[in-house]
Amino acid sequence: MIIGAKYKVCRRLGSGVFEKCQNQKFSLSEARHEKSNRGKRRKQVSDYGQQLIEKQKIRFSYGISEKQLGNYVKEATTIKKVTPRDALFQLLEARLDNTLYRLGIASTRRLARQMSSHGHFVVNGKRTTVPSFRLKEGDVVALREGSKSRTLFQGLDKKLAKVANPAWLSFDVKNLSAKITGVPVNTETFLDFGSVLEFYSR
Predict the structure, then answer these.
(1) Nearest of 188, 184, 165, 182 to residue 90 by alpha carbon
(2) Among the listed residues 88, 113, 85, 86, the one whose alpha carbon sits nearest the alpha carbon of residue 99
(3) How far is it, in rounded angstroms, from Cα 175 to Cα 148?
(4) Integer Cα distance of 51 and 193 in angstroms
(5) Which domains does the chain have, with CATH numbers?
(6) How far apart are CA 52 and CA 200, in angstroms?
């Protein structure tokens, strides 16, 4: 039932929303759906409708609530050093759960939220249970010593050896410790952060 619901969301917003949709099973499902709807007229989407879609794509992709996204947008518009679009991207990428996902420690952002909320990680030596904890340059994120024996993290070093990390993260795979060495650079093509800013400026 959960898979079906996610497939439905992905069909409406795009396969990039959930990792579960980025596989052959979803592609085959989409092909069958397209074949059954061949010849039917598609409804044209208004500018407002497209902005709404982009907002939902960001919400589902990062796993945040409407209120959280609104707060991120509000803060992004007050940051002077970068454009609001880049600021919004950086604020979302700097979340602890997203960082664990980018490092490859968690295969999905949902799993990364669970890992962080259960207190498996420390930031600068202090345990945190807040998935939205904001990391900044110089911060060090590491797997808590008491969690290293958990089945969830067994064999993780071998898996991570094949993962390419973003330029703003330096990862010591052996010790499962990462340092924030810079700021995230927006190379995202699936998510339109500009449209979301326009949506909230109405």
Answers:
(1) 184
(2) 113
(3) 10
(4) 9
(5) 46-183+196-202 (3.10.290.10)
(6) 10
Main-chain phi, psi angles of 178, to 5 degrees: -125, 145
Q: Which residues pair with 8 in a beta bridge?
A: none
Paired tokens of 142? 């590491």
d(CA 96, CA 140): 11
User: Are the C-beta atoms of residues 139 and 126 closer than 8 Å to each other?
Assistant: no
pLDDT tens-place string over residues 12-35: 777 677 776 776 666 666 666 566
The DSSP call for residue 82 is: S
Q: Please give the angle made by the CA atoms of 16, 75 and 19, to the nearest 5 degrees.
A: 15
Length of the chain: 202
Tens digit of each residue's pLDDT (9 = 90 or more) over 38-65: 656 666 778 888 899 999 999 999 999 9
The Cα–Cα gap between 191 and 189 comes to: 6
What is the spatial distance between Cα 157 and Cα 181, in angstroms, rounded to a whole number?
21
CB 88, CB 196: distance < 8 Å: yes
Residue type, position 191, single letter: L
Cα distance between residue 133 and residue 122, in whole Å = 11
Sheet of strand 140-143, all strands in order from the earlier edge strand to the far edge: 126-127, 121-123, 140-143, 177-180, 169-172
- Which residue pairs, CB below 8 angstroms and at least 24 apart, start in 31-35? none
